[in-house]
Amino acid sequence: MYLISLGAGILAGVLYGLINVRSPAPPAIALIGLLGMLVGEQIVPVAKRVIEGAPLTRAWFASECQPKITGLNPSADKNADGESRQA
């Protein structure tokens, strides 16, 4: 796992070099890069689902991918009875 992480870091460094961005990157560029990593991680479960022939629904994406991208638990907005909380 450490070698894979190192390899990913080297690849990111090469890409930064190709687009002439200094490391550490300016905050906006770094945050956009992190968002890209979070979104890119979700390509694997989407691809698996497509290969399995299962449909890509909004509900599936909201329950499986969106929490990993946003860091928010979709069930956190529901009470013990499964009803949405009112603000």
Can you walk me through this structure?
The radius of gyration is 18 Å and the shape is elongated. The protein starts with a helix and ends in a 17-residue tail after the last helix. The longest helix is centred in the N-terminal third of the chain and has 17 residues, at 2-18. The chain contains 5 helices and no strands. The chain has 87 residues and is mostly helical. It is 62% helix and 0% strand. It has helices spanning 2-18, 27-41, 43-52, 58-64, 66-70. The mean pLDDT is 82.
Q: What structural class do helix, strand and pairing data support?
A: mainly alpha
Model regions low in confidence, pLDDT < 50 over at least 5 residues: none
Major sheet details: none
Provide the β-strand percentage band: under 5%
Helix-strand sequence: HHHHH
Number of strands: 0
Helix content: 55-70%
Q: Overall 3D geometry? A: elongated
* Distance between the first and last residues' Cα: 43 Å
- The average pLDDT value, as a whole number, equals 82
- Oligomeric status: single chain
User: Count of DSSP helices?
Assistant: 5
Structural features:
mainly alpha, 87 residues
Concise synopsis of the structure shown:
With 87 residues, this protein is mostly helical. It contains 5 helices and no strands.
